[in-house]
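Q: What changes when zinc ion is included in the input?
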Amino acid sequence: MKNGKCPRCGSDKIYTAENLPLKGGPFASNAIPVSLTCLAPLDNYVCTACGLVEHYVLQEEKMAEIKRKWRRVGAANESTED
Ligand SMILES: [Zn+2]
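A: The predicted holo structure follows.
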């Protein structure tokens, strides 16, 4: 969806507001808890043709924190490399 095309309906009417003030939302309603002291604000992408919404974590430091703190899903190896 970040490439500007809707994966559901194929429309190119995709909108986002990456630099929205307080994009984490009131009381961090538009953010996900990463760890006890870390929240990752989400960037929303909306298709105005079908209404599909996708959320992305786009801050590199939050990605790094997630890789440190979270369990990698489905990986056969339990190592922590990228
Ligand atoms: Zn769509």
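Observations recorded in class: Residues 14-69 form one domain.
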